[in-house]
Amino acid sequence: MLEERVMARAGGACELCGSANDLAVYLVPSSPSEDSDTAILACGDCRSQLNNETEIDMNHWRCLNDAMWSQVPAVQVVSWRMLHKLSGETWAQDLLDMMYLDDATRQWAEAGTANLDCEPTLDVNGTSLMPGDNVHLIKDLNVKGANFTAKRGTVVRNISLSDNPAHIEGKVNGTRIVIIAAYTKKS
Asked: What is the dihedral of CA 92, 96, 98, 102, to 10 degrees?
């Protein structure tokens, strides 16, 4: 019954990438219930990467450019979580910045990414940094590969956190760079 409802809604195609191969229902983790509203139809490629069974193929997930606009909250949640996971990629962060989720859907999406065991990312004063915060640099930083120096006092808006709690990511002079969190101060 669940599978029939999800298949009918999806029109026989993966709700993330549009593939018609190896389709199956994927129950979204940390869902408030287990019904067709909290499940999506996903192809084998998407499912294996979502379940961490295979290495993430960055180019495969460019399909989220379309999927993130779905009217189905479960598709929105999976899109947001994957874009959040790939936020180190400029294109993924740009899509994440454009994406809109209502409050309930955002809470559901964030529930799947909460990791209470992770170490906090701290600025120079020991203040905890969160995604979306604004910081300013406390020293000049030579940006390798971009041939410029990020000057002390430069404001970095809407930062992202990385898997490493010592690093943050943000745009300086239009270039997305990794910054050592201890070289920043929360604005």
From this structure: 150
Residue among 4, 43, 42 nearest 21 (CA):
43
Q: What is the 3-state secondary structure (H, E, C) of 129-181?
A: ECCCCCEEECCCEEECCCCEEECCCCEECCCEECCCCCEEEEEECCEEEEEEH
Q: Tell me, what amino acid is at 137?
A: L
Strand ranges (DSSP E) for the chain?
24-27, 39-42, 121-122, 128-129, 135-137, 141-143, 148-150, 155-156, 160-161, 167-172, 175-180, 184-186
Query: What residues form DSSP beta bridges with 27?
Result: 39
Rg of the chain in Å (alpha carbons): 19
Backbone φ and ψ for 83, nearest 5 degrees, come out as -65, -35
Give backbone dihedrals phi and psi of 126, rounded to 5 degrees, phi first.
85, 10
Residue 80's Cα: distance from chain center in Å? 5
Q: What are 179's strand-pairing partners?
A: 168
- Full-model pTM: 0.62
pLDDT one-digit tens code per residue, 43-102: 999 999 998 888 889 899 999 999 999 999 999 999 999 998 888 788 998 999 999 999
